[in-house]
Amino acid sequence: MMRSRFVFGALSVVLLLGACGTVSPTSAPAPDQQAAADAIPLDPQVIGGTPSAAGARPYQVALLSGGRQFCGGTLISDQWVLTAAHCVVGTSATSISVRAGSLYATSGGQLRNVASGRIHPNYTDVTRGYDVAVLRVSSPFSLTNTVNTAALPTPAFAATAAAVGTVQTISGWGMTVGGNRGSTSSTLREANLPVISNSSCASQLGQSIPNGMICGNKNSQGQTGCHGDSGGPFASSRNGKYFVFGVVSWGQANLCSRATAFARVSEYQSWITANTGVQPQGGTAQVADASN
């Protein structure tokens, strides 16, 4: 049975990672404070990203509290949103609203209240994985060309479709310039990042990367993740269907110049399906849409 409040007080401690390693643990902020908290955890998003076109990322949603966008998410059915556990731990599910189908986080599109949700029971902090949560909205979204779902990949499909060397798209309303100079974007932006091995990611971030994470590297245009939109998608189109392979989780604090770590969706697919009823999909991974 879904609970309308996330009561995980003992699990609300997360680690803040900086360029020089780990500093003191800090409690996760409430959603309406998240945008102002540079890193609890890092809240990565698009540095130097390209503005998204209307309908290009129909699965992207914004999570809001008190009218402010604090995290992102992925629409996986007309009534279920996949996001990061650290975005919602310790908060009331019913205080959150979800906006879909708009390039603007705080206007347009379709808006729904959250009715209930669940955080992965093994989540403790972002560096240990399990950084996934699901939210059920109070009434279904109307699926259109600008509001649509991304499929959950089967583990077998993801092993090829999101293998090292493939390119996935990060998107959201986060900071577009690294360091302390940046501000969040007023419109949805995106960047294509190459998937790198967990060992390569660990060498960049100075932290062990468990199997439950997938990493995207800074691309040749200097685009990568930064503060501002945890919980958002790391996704691509395969044979005309969008699949979500990662959930924005954490990265290098302040500088935003290295790899970004995502929760690996295929690792938690069975838990997501058990809690939402949304079934995974697969297919022929070798043929990818040129548009990604």
Summarize this structure briefly.
The chain is mainly β and about 290 residues long. Helices cover about 10% and strands about 30% of the residues. The protein starts with 12 loop residues before the first strand and ends in a 16-residue tail after the last helix.
Spell the H/E element sequence.
EEEEHEEEEHEEEHEEHEEEEH
Q: What is the terminal separation in angstroms? A: 37 Å
Which strand-content bin applies to the residues? Answer: 25-35%
Number of helical runs?
Answer: 5
Low-confidence stretches: 1-45, 176-182, 285-291
The chain-level mean pLDDT equals 79
Q: Main β-sheet: number of strands, strand sense, barrel status?
A: 6 strands, antiparallel, barrel
Q: Got a strand count?
A: 17
Strand order of the largest sheet: 12-13-14-17-16-15
Rounded to the nearest angstrom, the radius of gyration is: 17 Å
Describe it for me?
- Helix content is 11%, strand content 30%.
- 53% of the residues are buried.
- Mean pLDDT is 79; it is low at 1-45, 176-182 and 285-291.
- It has helices at residues 31-34, 85-88, 155-161, 198-205, 269-276, and strands at 13-14, 17-18, 21-22, 26-27, 50-51, 60-65, 68-75, 80-83, 97-100, 110-119, 133-137, 167-172, 189-196, 213-216, 233-238, 241-251, 260-264.
- The longest helix has 8 residues, at 198-205.
- A hairpin with a 2-residue loop joins strand 15 (233-238) and strand 16.
- It is built from five helices and 17 strands.
- The protein is mainly beta.
- The protein has a six-stranded antiparallel beta barrel with strand order 12-13-14-17-16-15.
